[in-house]
Write a structure and sequence with these properties.
Rossmann fold, alpha/beta, 11 strands, nine-stranded mixed β-sheet, 8 helices
Length: 256
């Protein structure tokens, strides 16, 4: 079995408030970049599959030279190999899917491609669906649990609203997981040291034999959300009077 986890390097969520609209528009961010938190759960899912069903788990990302740091994090968590698809120009989700699909084909006989639900910067959740479309494979989104994996099929639990669906699909397949798949494991110090010394191969669009399509999505209006107009109101009187006043206030605000 071969599992390939698609990851992305994104800003640390603790530092997102520090990003100015001008920085976001330019794409040159002066904040700490880490593995997209959703993708950490995809790495955990890939490692679980490797432990439960055998085989190997690799990681791949599309980005500039600095994205190698995200791949080293995946190696430190337990992935057996990693590949950087180097691309420095502007690209949208469809272009990323084009490069990732080429990388999957280049990797060889991949059974399961894993992704996170979305990224903390784009939040579109479009890449796993676009990737499956490029590969011509089925896609399973919102996956919270892998029930069974065989040589030719996978059975998973999907979360859809308040429901859980058990779905079976043929492999190869693209699986987009949610955080319920499992808490990402912490890398050991030894694995961190080993990952720092690994020579990570790099591929380009030319080497993969694909032409990256020009972006069809352009973000032109970057702005921070308005500050919330929050206030605190204390209700006096007996518990019964305070409760009645609270209910009246909630009804007035149309919360109830």
């Amino acid at each position: 079995m071969r599992y390939l986890v698609c990851i992305k390097q994104t800003p640390d969520t603790a530092e997102l408030p520090k990003i100015s609209p001008e920085e976001a528009a330019s794409g040159k961010l002066s904040v700490n970049l880490v593995v997209n938190p959703w993708d950490e759960h995809a790495i955990e899912a890939g490692l679980q599959l490797m432990e439960n069903y055998g085989g190997t788990t690799g990681a791949v990302t599309v980005g500039e030279e600095g994205a190698i740091d995200a791949l080293r994090s995946a190696l430190a968590m337990g992935c057996k190999d990693a590949t950087l698809v180097k691309h420095d120009d502007e690209i949208d989700a469809w272009g990323v899917a084009e490069l990732l699909a080429a990388a999957v084909r280049h990797d060889g006989d991949v059974d399961v491609v894993l992704t996170g639900q979305m990224t903390v910067d784009g939040n579109s959740g479009a890449v796993p669906v676009a990737l499956a479309r490029k590969l011509g494979w089925p896609v399973l989104t919102g996956v919270a649990k892998v029930v069974e994996l065989t040589d030719d099929s996978i059975t998973v639990e999907r979360v859809v609203g308040q429901a859980r669906l058990t779905v079976k699909a043929p492999t190869p397949v693209v699986v987009s997981v949610i955080k319920e798949i499992g808490e990402p494991r912490y890398p050991t110090f030894i694995n961190i040291r080993k990952a720092a010394r690994v020579k990570i191969p790099e591929l380009t669009a030319e080497e993969l034999g694909v032409d990256v399509p020009a972006p069809v999505v352009h973000m032109s209006n970057f702005r921070k959300p308005p500050a919330r107009d929050a206030h605190v109101k204390l209700f006096e009187g007996t518990p019964q009077e305070a409760a009645a006043a609270l209910i009246d206030a909630l009804l007035e605000e149309k919360v109830l």
